[in-house]
Amino acid sequence: MSDKRYHVLFFVALSLLAYWFLGYLVPRENFFLLFGFYSIAFISFYYLYNASSISEKELFGYGVFFRGILLFCLPFWSQDVYRFIWDGRVVYSGLSPYEFKPDAIIHSVHFFQSHELYEKMGSLSASHFSNYPPVNQFIFLIAALFASKSIFLSVFIFKSILFFADIGIYHYGKKMMVELGFSTKNIFLYFLNPLIIVELVGNAHFEGVMLFLLVLGVYCFFTNKLMWSALFIALSISTKLLPLLLLPFFYQKLGFKKSVVFYVFILLINYLLFLPFVSESLVQNYSQTIALWFINFEFNASFYYVFRAIGYWFVGYNVIGVIGKIIPVFSVLILLYYALFRNNVLPQMFFKNALFGLLIYFLVSTTIHPWYIVNLLFLSMFTKYKFILVWTLTVILSYFTYSQDSFQENMVLIFLEYTAFLGFLGYEIYRIKKAEKPFKQAESI
Question: Is the pTM of this model over 0.85?
């Protein structure tokens, strides 16, 4: 066996050790162990991706293996999974999670483990209506149907769905790379990335299902299967609302008439999916819950914290109520600029402009959990820009907050998180422009 093969086995073993500790032994409160083992997983990922002796088939096998390690652990880093199970059992009981807050019905619902789920989801989640759209609720209901008396089995069902969703992202992402002329090895920047493995299969966040459906939709779009594209994008929106922000980017290639049909079909599918939950208060309750992410919640933000500090300096109190109303308007204008006033007909420009439009939205947002940026990582694989890879490493610094009894954020670590990847972005912009300059000069002669 060659030295290179020993190196590969060494880093695979390191990854196995890191994922085992992260999934089964390291709670989010122990930041230094969490950061240490995550860094080990990331260094191993970097080596395995760049090792010339490893085939793409072998890399795929490692990605499946690492996910398999995390299939059987309860998420240590997030309480969300307990709200998922709660919502599923509420729907199974004939109630709507958009109509009843857990706080309001904890003493009147009678499904198994209701009090345990209520305690474990946390007071913040328990005091609000569900914000998870209908496709998510359907998945939660599946767990309620097949695992009505087991938290562990419910979580295993969620993780199994996310496991196969990730394989679907790999398969259709790779097919799209072949169709569009990109290196198929780029898919492993997603499939082997520790953030993806830990936060999706490990911590059971449904950005994985959302992204799978979005990838299917974009793949169908660029292979001219427009109705299938609209269907999958609609299902993606009904899993997580984020793909709504990307809808304007399809306009240029479609033109006005096709766009009308495309968007109306997407809206119709979403209407039909929400139909089982329709009530007089649905719109009010759901919009109220979504608004919390703009005007109440704060976590791991960047430029918003700068705006907040300026607000404190001028008026002496937290101005999130004002800034939170400005951010959605500003974000929509920026996204419309990138979608309508930049060239998005070519796939390369579509992905580049969607990446930067969505990046600006995240940079001004009030709340950025680590698993949110999986969408940016996928978009970046179809561009020359790799700065999001740096963010998938530094975003783990945000978990320091959970190691504090007061959940106080460390602004030095947040500064390091954002300056690292934004600094690398600045370097990439300079390098790419420098590389393109001779070609532009040749065209002008």
Answer: yes
